[in-house]
Amino acid sequence: MPHPDWLVAEDDRFSSLILPNAQLDRLWQAGRWCEGPAYFAAGRYLLWSDIPNDRILRYDENDGHVSVFRQPAAFSNGQTLDREGRLVTCEHGSRSVTRTEHNGRITTLADAFEGLRLNSPNDVAVKSDGSIWFTDPSYGIDSDYEGGKRRSELDCHVYCLPPDGELRRVADDVEKPNGLAFSPDESWLYVSDTGATHRADGPRHIRRFRVGQDHRLSGGDVFATSDCGLFDGFRLDVAGNLWTSAGDGVHCYAPDGTRLGRILIPETVANVCFGGISRNRLYVCATTSLYAVTLNTRGHHVIGEAIAPSDIRAPART
């Protein structure tokens, strides 16, 4: 059976990842810049950020209902779950990384490094040892559109917050660090660099770093370079294939760096996330809309995904 015209195979391996009767579903459309999806299996719902509208939205997989999870939301961006199923969020407005506790209260995990304020944490990943890794570009303080225009106190870096709580800078040579994700065995950390937003000949690629036992990174060779727009956020499946946002949709790369194919989306894509009962539903945040497509592969296990946090809409902060 031929692929629909919104699926573009560039390698024979792509066909094994796509269902022959696949459909691209637009689930919702009313955002300004949709970002940061995180899936909660216990409740079968997806949270994602609509940054300029300063809200976190909630899609119920059971009945397709969309509601506001939190507003205002400190201009939240990237989100994920920790080992206990708590929501971890990058916030442009507060220039911090926070955690939503099971009772709904919000705890600030990191908002400064060596006495200087972070820029605007962008995307976050949690390793199985409980360490929290995040990127800190300047996008949320460059203008008032996705946060508030402020002076930058730090260069743009990648950070790790180990379980002992002492924030560490783990990569200082990424111009505008953006999306990040671990390989299934956590031996590699992938980081996108979107420096081309601020410099015409700036980077528009994903780099791959070797992860050491002591939360240190090494290497950092370019894994893939975008030929359409920029790579923003991405996730990996159980086989180590990387599914990334791009200007024309979602691009899929094999672990060897070969682009296997593309899912064409009629809007610029910001981020993706695996969900569904079998983790084979790829949710796509694309400018104004939330899309989804069911694949013939599964996202690798998300830490804590079997537990959902309390849905408290007006949380207190500590």
Helix content: under 10%
Total count of strands: 27
Oligomer: single chain
Terminal Cα separation, in Å?
55 Å
Largest sheet: 5 strands, antiparallel
Spell out the helices and strands N to C: EEEEEEEEEEEEEEHEEEEEEEEEEEEE
- Overall structural class, as computed from helix and strand content, comes to mainly beta
Query: Shape, please?
Result: globular
> Which regions are unreliable across 5 or more consecutive residues at pLDDT < 50?
304-315
As laid out across the biggest beta sheet, the strand order is 1-24-23-22-21
The average pLDDT score comes to: 94
β-strand percent reads: 35-45%
Task: Write up this protein.
With 318 residues, this protein is mostly beta strands. 1% of the residues lie in helices and 44% in strands. The strands form 7 sheets. A 5-stranded antiparallel beta sheet has the order 1-24-23-22-21, with no helix packed on it. β23 and β24 form a beta hairpin. The longest helix is centred in the middle third of the chain and has 4 residues. The chain is globular.
Give keywords.
318 residues; mainly beta; 4-stranded antiparallel β-sheet; 27 strands; 44% strand; globular
